[in-house]
Design goal:
alpha+beta; 2 domains; four-stranded antiparallel β-sheet; about 50% helix; rod-shaped; binds zinc ion
Length: about 120
């Protein structure tokens, strides 16, 4: 019995399958590029903030607990001041003006305690 498909038919099917593979390979390549761009943007966004040292964070939480017993205001302002030595951080209650200074932070995302 003779085959129902001609060699040309089979070649055409191969061509179609190859173009489908090329399409999906290109699609995967573009999606990977998009993923990388999204990750880069996310990292830039995260690292745009200031890293507060662990010791400073502990001091702030302690200060907040103490402050919240005396003042009804639950919101505090974080003030970052650029100085010649780096960035100074203080927290202040906008209502009673109680302030905590001498805190450490950095715009370096890998910053840790150097106090
Ligand atoms: Zn207060």
């Amino acid at each position: 019995m003779l085959p129902t498909k001609t060699i040309m038919n089979i070649d055409e099917e191969i061509k179609k399958a190859e173009s489908t593979i090329e399409y999906w390979q290109e699609r995967i390549k573009n999606l990977k590029k998009e993923k990388q761009t999204t990750e880069d943007l996310l990292c830039d966004y995260i690292y745009r903030g200031f890293a507060i040292s662990e010791k400073s964070e502990e001091k702030i939480l302690e200060w907040e607990t103490e402050h919240n017993m005396e003042c009804r205001n639950r919101y505090i302002d974080y003030i970052f001041t650029k100085t010649e030595l780096g960035t100074a951080l203080s927290v202040i209650c906008p209502k009673c003006k109680k302030e905590l200074t001498g805190l450490c932070c950095s715009s370096d995302p890998l910053y840790s305690d150097k106090e």
